[in-house]
């Protein structure tokens, strides 16, 4: 696989029967990753900086990272195999011994939640980005049909 990546953002979140559709892409193309409903809600909360009464699992992970001086460097969605997306979570730790990068296999949904929580970049492997179906037109139609619907606009306020 090529090491080339394409920068993307979360362009929308839409509840679906089987969970949530996360629209990911850039000005050239948008594609969809299906995630569990609760993770779709969490990703939306992080994108909107929604206050929470109690820490959620991803808040706990963020706090553990902070405690050890670790930060999310970036997320790379790198593979699609048997209709399942794969991703890598790249972490960085800097201390008196230097800088250490660690790359972990992780679910794209968890990676997207952590990237949203940390306001860190998301990338897609170029070869994967070229093979996924472009859903830009579908997302644009949904946005037109649901103008002002906060679920489709991850940055809007509830």
Quick description:
With 158 residues, this protein is α+β, with helices and mostly antiparallel strands.
Structure in words:
By secondary structure, the protein is α+β, with helices and mostly antiparallel strands. It has a single domain, classed as Roll (Bifunctional nuclease domain), CATH 3.10.690. Strands 3-2-1-7-4-5-6 form a seven-stranded mixed sheet. Strand 2 and strand 3 form a beta hairpin. Helix 1 runs parallel beside helix 3 and helix 2 crosses helix 3. It is globular, with a radius of gyration of 16 Å.
Shape: globular
Main pleated-sheet profile = 7 strands, mixed
CATH architectural arrangement:
Roll
* Low-confidence spans: none
SSE series: EEEHHEEEHEHH
Termini, distance in Å? 40 Å
Structural class: alpha+beta
CATH fold label: Bifunctional nuclease domain
> How many domains is the backbone divided into?
1
* Beta strands, count: 7
Strand order of the largest sheet: 3-2-1-7-4-5-6
Helicity level: 25-40%
Mean pLDDT across every amino acid position: 90
> How many helices in DSSP terms?
5
Radius of gyration: 16 Å
What is the name of the CATH class?
A: Alpha Beta
Strand content: 35-45%
CATH superfamily, by name, is: Bifunctional nuclease domain
């Amino acid at each position: 696989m090529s090491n080339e990546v394409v920068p993307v953002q979360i362009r929308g979140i839409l509840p679906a029967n089987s969970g949530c559709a996360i629209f990911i892409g850039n000005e050239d193309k948008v594609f969809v990753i299906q995630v569990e409903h609760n993770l779709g809600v969490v990703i939306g909360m992080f994108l909107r900086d929604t206050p929470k009464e109690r820490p959620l699992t991803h808040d706990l992970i963020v706090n553990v990272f902070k405690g050890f001086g670790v930060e999310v460097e970036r997320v790379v969605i790198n593979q699609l195999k048997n209709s399942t997306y794969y991703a890598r979570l790249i972490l960085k730790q800097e201390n008196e011994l230097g800088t250490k990068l660690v790359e972990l296999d992780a679910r794209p949904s968890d990676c997207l939640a952590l990237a949203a929580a940390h306001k860190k970049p998301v990338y897609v492997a170029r070869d994967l980005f070229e093979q996924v179906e472009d859903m830009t037109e579908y997302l644009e139609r949904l946005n037109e049909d649901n103008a002002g619907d906060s679920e489709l606009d991850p940055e809007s306020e509830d």
